[in-house]
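Anyone? Bumping this.
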Amino acid sequence: MTMPGPWPYTATRSDVGVLTVGGVAVTDLAAEYGTPLWVVDEEDLRERCRRYREGFPGVDVTYASKAWCTMGVLQIVDEEGLLIDVASEGEMHTALVAGVPADRLILHGNNKSEHELDRALEAGVLRIVVDSFDELERLERLAAARDVVVPIWLRITPGIDAHTHEYVRTGHDDAKFGFTLSLGLADEAFARALELDHLDVVGIHAHIGSQIFGTDPFIANAEVTLDLLARWREQHGVVLDELNLGGGMGIRYTHEDHPVEVARYGKAVLETVAERCEALDYPQPRLIVEPGRAIVGPSTVTLYEVGTVKPLPGLTTWVSIDGGMSDNIRPALYDAEHEVALVSRESDAEPRAVTVVGKHCESGDLVREHAPLPSDLAVGDLLAVAATGAYTSSMASNYNRLPRPAAVLVRDGQVRPLLRRETLDDVVRRDVSLR
Ligand code: LLP
């Protein structure tokens, strides 16, 4: 039986109702690797990279590694021919240690330290995205000290309000990222950069937000940024030929989510760019897009074991699993809803709405409210949570001193570890004892 909707491409149920991913039964994975466990469908991950490249022909598709920055994921994405965006020295270090060539990396961040910038120069990353006036001066100084000219993009805040959760909006005027266009800061930054001897502005970047469902905000972003490039050509006689339109396409977390297919999204953006360039008589720039969630999110499910079931008559039935907000902060932070399913057996029992919660010491530690799960759900059952590849492991913590889960990659019946489970020794490793 196929698992449609938010589940990975190869997810199916056996005839006894056990979920298999990549040809491996999750009951076997739980027995071997324990729970909670991130199970990554390698075929799904690779297929989404390919669909992005097909959907955006001629465009540099760049994986936003903040979604999940672990060596194995970066190696797969690199093998599939994507560039990689890194937003800190830690992400850059992971990519370099994973063997990703530095000239496949783009460095982001609204507060890159001198040390981070210098390491990027040392490594020779492809592009640095400059986010502020302070950074322009800082990078100029570092480039001068190395006697190099550094190709940069300016991060523009284009004044586009993508209607998504407040915490994942970035394109509106009053944002912490980039040079706000409507306040004249983008113009000022460009004029200033033109005066600097060791920085070469070769393009601009604008990312408007995340988990966006329609194409309209992306179209608006392309139009606004191309208009800006054309205006700068008039004002300064300079033609910039690189345009990074950021990431942000949404994914399915539940059956109710209906994001746009990447083919349609790509077509809409590419047509807009072609039309606008023609109207402005501007040479078509090299384009870059930066998906994170849409590459890695749908590939992964998190497996948990049910530890307690507490039905309160007339009130909620609370189902506690063996992880929670330390391995997926998204429900607590963004009210995110991920689909949940019983995956270790079949059940004909009537579904009833239960609230699945984690084992942390606070009430906001939700996995899913009102999840329709079989009424015979019992201690020891395995639950899977869908679409947990993006922003779960990468935002994981040791809250309540829970060791962080393991992750495995599954494909054609084979299992390869991606992350080993943390041990309790790992958990106390950085503590300095006073005894
Ligand atoms: N480019 C830049 C400059 C970004 O800041 C981001 C995401 C992306 C690309 C990729 O966006 P995506 O395609 O993944 O939507 N933790 C939140 C999401 C934060 C997104 C941060 N920036 C969540 O769990 O929903």
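Late reply, but here is one note on the structure posted above: The mean pLDDT is 96.
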